[in-house]
Design goal:
With 527 residues, the chain is mainly β. InterPro entries: Vps62.
Length: 527
């Protein structure tokens, strides 16, 4: 009997080890449907971007596996390190790629080509390598031994990535290229995207991104990683850099026809909860059906109806003037108040803001959804649900999704789901798709936070917190059909912003929410 139990335990252990050696990363993720053929015009989706200074870059998403570990990192499944393959003539690797093993292979790195005509070219070979870390002495499940090297750049150049090998011998100096310093930008680690670390936490692998990100920022992500032994990740001391778009042009951003084609191809279906009482509506519907502008001037309150496009709303400014305060509210008539709170799904629209991101190498398509009313929250204590009455209720609720699309080929890579005052990026490989490449989004009951999958998400710890219930129903918002492009600064006069977009005051009484243009992410990046 003991022998049988021993054999069973051994079989179980071998089975677990085998399972860890066949992680999800062994499969490669692709969008369910082919990337569309985009309307012609400009430099969008032409595979190569000129960053200026003689530096051309291309995005590579095909890889050769270099080394794998089956422990540590997300879900303790380890991570795999790759180098790009299939480079076009004249292009060189700028760094290797790393991804946790808990999801299918889906990533990219930039490769570079020196197109300069000066002695100090855009790219240069390293002069040496420094061994950052190796697994020789570690007792971990791994494919051979891993060695991570930092290129030592010649004077006037900087490394933007690492080289990974399975040999203690230094890589060839021709393996990678460093980048001229004026074509690089400061980068920082993304702690929410920690790729891998050893069990003792003495060695960490981080995703990195430009420290300055936004509409006007020049920093470009390379797609590489930072390998660091010991603690501390002070951005000023990081041994690698990001790239910089020194041209300052938007020639690789999509034109209006291409934007509309991307919206048709990638816009989500947003499902409302079966018990949802407070539906979205268009802003025009909200104004036309009785929403009012409240003006409080030196203690005197005046109520005004609002034009359908918000043309009589105060523009710009702030509520810092002690003598005058503005906000939007529901009408006093109780019947109208109840009706407006319910919203009107048939009139709802996704209000689209299109902006360059990561130095113009990506396009962010931000889709804003308006709800006339945000319902009260529910708490969960152990197995008991407790309505919080009016807690969380407010007039005017703005939520949004952001589609991040590569300007190299027009591929959807990630989607950001806003969740109250925070949110989360979700890789395309983790999305639920339907009708081709269109992701599903689920709006939580009453609070309208957005999630990539149905279910219960708790805000809190240890069985105590606020519920976010998301589920599919027949009430669905098709954002590819119901949308309006309200802003795309780089297109200039081609897009006319509606007046309500430049109303900077509160969209509800008391501490009501601000409109989309007053959010930090309007000009900046998501968290």
């Amino acid at each position: 009997m003991l022998q049988i139990l021993g054999l069973q335990a051994m079989a179980s252990s071998l089975g677990q080890f085998k399972k860890k050696q066949n992680p999800r990363i062994e499969t490669t993720f692709k969008l369910p449907a082919d990337i569309p053929v985009w309307p012609p015009g400009g430099g969008f989706a032409t595979s190569i971007i000129d960053l200026g200074g003689g530096l051309l870059v291309s995005q590579i998403s095909t890889f050769n596996k270099v080394w794998t570990t089956y422990e540590g990192g997300p879900n303790n499944l380890g991570a795999t390190f790759f180098e790009p393959t299939g480079l076009s003539e004249g292009f060189f690797m700028l760094g290797c790629y790393c991804q946790p093993n808990n999801k299918p292979l889906h990533g990219w790195v930039l490769v570079g080509k020196d197109n300069s005509s000066t002695l100090n070219g855009a790219l240069a070979k390293p002069v040496d390598y420094k061994l950052v870390w190796n697994t020789k002495s570690l007792k971990i499940k791994q494919d051979g031994q891993g060695y991570i090297w930092l290129p030592i750049a010649p004077e006037g150049y900087k490394p933007v990535g690492h080289v990974v090998t399975t040999s203690p011998e230094k890589p060839s100096l021709d393996k990678i290229r460093c980048v001229r310093s004026d074509l690089t930008d400061e980068c920082t680690t993304c702690h929410s995207m920690k790729l891998w670390r050893t069990e003792n936490k003495r060695f960490n692998v981080y995703d990195v991104r430009p420290i300055k990100r936004g509409i006007e920022a020049q920093g470009v992500s390379v797609g590489t990683f930072l390998a660091q032994s010991g603690g501390g990740t002070n951005s000023k001391a990081l041994p690698i850099s990001c790239l910089k778009n020194t041209k300052g042009s938007f020639s690789y951003m999509p034109n209006l026809s291409q934007i509309k084609a991307m919206i048709k191809a990638y816009s989500p279906y947003m499902y409302l909860h079966p018990m949802e009482e407070y539906l979205p509506s268009s802003v025009d519907w909200f104004f036309t059906n009785g929403a009012v502008l409240i003006e409080k001037r030196k203690g005197v309150i005046r109520e005004s109806s609002i034009e359908p496009n918000g043309s009589n709303l105060p523009q710009g400014g702030s509520n810092d003037d002690d003598d005058v305060t503005y906000w939007l509210d529901l009408p006093l008539d109780e019947t109208k108040r109840v009706s407006i709170k319910k919203g009107d799904l048939a009139s709802s629209q996704a209000y689209v803001h299109v902006k360059p991101m990561l130095g113009g190498t990506f396009t962010d398509i931000v889709m804003w959804i308006f709800y006339p009313f945000n319902g009260g929250a529910r708490a969960k204590v152990a197995c008991t649900n407790i309505p919080l009455r009016t807690k969380g209720e407010h007039v005017g609720d703005w939520e949004h999704l952001t589609l991040r699309v590569s300007n190299f080929n027009g591929e959807l890579w990630r989607v950001y789901f806003s969740q109250h005052s925070e949110g989360k990026w979700v890789d395309a490989s983790e999305l639920e798709f339907q009708n081709g490449n269109r992701p599903a989004a689920y709006s939580s009951l009453h609070g309208h936070a957005l999630f990539p999958k149905p279910g219960l998400v708790m805000q809190g710890m240890r069985g105590l917190g606020v519920r976010n219930d998301a589920a599919r129903s027949d009430a669905v918002m098709d954002m590819a059909t119901w949308f309006e492009i309200v802003a795309a600064e780089y297109l200039g006069s081609q897009i006319r912003e509606p007046p309500w977009l430049n109303y900077w005051m509160n969209w509800g009484p008391k501490e009501g929410p601000k409109g989309p243009k007053q959010k930090d992410m309007w000009k900046g990046d998501e968290r």
